[in-house]
Each structure stands twice: as structure tokens, then as C-alpha cells.
């Protein structure tokens, strides 16, 4: 019998762990660059890349807070959906993979282009394909924690 945990635990653990794994996945996708650089890039979405690069550790801390905040919010969305549609808990793996595709599409084609980084719609490149795989893992982690949340 699997252990059960609260809705809040599913949201927090799913979001924090998925968000942290995503930082290291982004580092690997970009040639194993320093994760602090990834965090400054995330901060750049709010304050612009020049300010984020100049901000050093403060920008990295902002990027970490933004990454975890967004990840917890994304986990909250999935868990609310799983409360409404219990099939998302019963079939957590395919649901998590599908959710990861949705997260990839929203982040790549809505959030980042409308952030301070901008840049318009990116082409689907090999790097984008690797990012899609990372988002499949991201969605699966969130769904795995949601599967055992008390209804």
C-alpha cells in the first residue's frame, strides 16, 4: 500500500523537486554551465538580462525564487486538476507526460517571449527538443507527487 500525503505536501514537494531538477536539466542542456548562470537567466525574465548578469548572487537568488515559485504554481495547477479529475491521479504517468508537454508549450511560446528576455517565437531546435524532454520529466515529477495526495 502506498503512503498518502496532503494536497499541500503534493504541491510543495512536487513543485520544489521538479523546479530544482529543472535547473540542473537546463544546465546540462546548455553544456553543463554553472547553475547560477541558469538562475540569472531566469531572473532576466523579470529584470532583463543585462541587469540579471550584473546582479551576481542577488540575481541568482531572485532566479531561484522565481523558478521555485513558478514550479510550485504549476504543481498547484496540476493538483487542482487532479482533484477535479481523479483520472489524473490514477493514470499519473501519461497524465504527467501530457502535462509536461503543456508546460513546455506555455513556457516556450507564451511566458518567455512575453518576458523581459523576449525574442519572439523560437524555432524548434535540438536544444528545444531536449528542453521538451526536461519538461516531460518535470510534469512526471509533479504527477507522481499528486498521485498519492489525499482526495
Tally of discrete structural domains: 1
The low-confidence parts are none
Number of helices: 7
Largest sheet: none
Helical content (DSSP H or I, runs of 4+)? over 70%
On the 0-100 scale, what is the average pLDDT?
94
Distance between the termini: 16 Å
Q: Which of globular, elongated, flat, extended, rod-shaped describes the shape?
A: globular
Describe the structure.
This protein is mainly α. 77% of the residues lie in helices and 0% in strands. It has helices at residues 7-29, 35-47, 49-54, 56-84, 87-90, 92-111, 126-147. The protein is globular and about 45 Å long. The mean pLDDT is 94.
Helices and strands, with pairings:
Layout: H1 7-29, H2 35-47, H3 49-54, H4 56-84, H5 87-90, H6 92-111, H7 126-147
Helix pairs in contact: 1-2, 1-4, 1-7, 2-4, 4-7, 6-7
Task: Give short descriptive properties of this protein.
151 residues; mainly alpha
Amino acid at each position: 500500500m502506498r503512503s498518502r500525503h496532503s494536497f499541500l505536501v503534493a504541491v510543495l514537494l512536487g513543485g520544489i523537486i521538479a523546479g530544482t531538477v529543472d535547473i540542473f536539466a537546463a544546465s546540462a542542456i546548455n553544456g553543463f554551465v554553472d547553475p547560477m548562470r541558469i538562475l540569472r537567466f531566469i531572473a532576466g525574465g523579470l529584470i532583463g538580462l543585462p541587469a540579471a548578469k550584473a546582479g551576481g548572487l542577488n540575481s541568482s537568488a531572485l532566479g531561484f525564487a522565481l523558478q521555485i515559485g513558478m514550479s510550485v504554481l504549476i504543481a498547484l495547477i496540476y493538483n487542482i486538476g487532479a482533484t477535479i479529475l481523479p483520472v489524473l491521479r490514477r493514470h499519473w504517468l501519461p497524465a504527467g507526460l501530457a502535462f509536461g508537454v503543456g508546460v513546455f508549450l506555455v513556457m516556450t511560446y507564451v511566458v518567455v517571449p512575453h518576458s523581459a528576455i523576449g525574442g519572439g517565437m523560437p524555432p524548434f531546435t535540438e536544444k528545444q527538443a531536449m528542453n521538451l524532454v526536461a519538461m516531460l520529466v518535470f510534469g512526471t515529477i509533479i504527477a507522481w507527487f499528486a498521485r498519492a495526495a489525499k482526495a
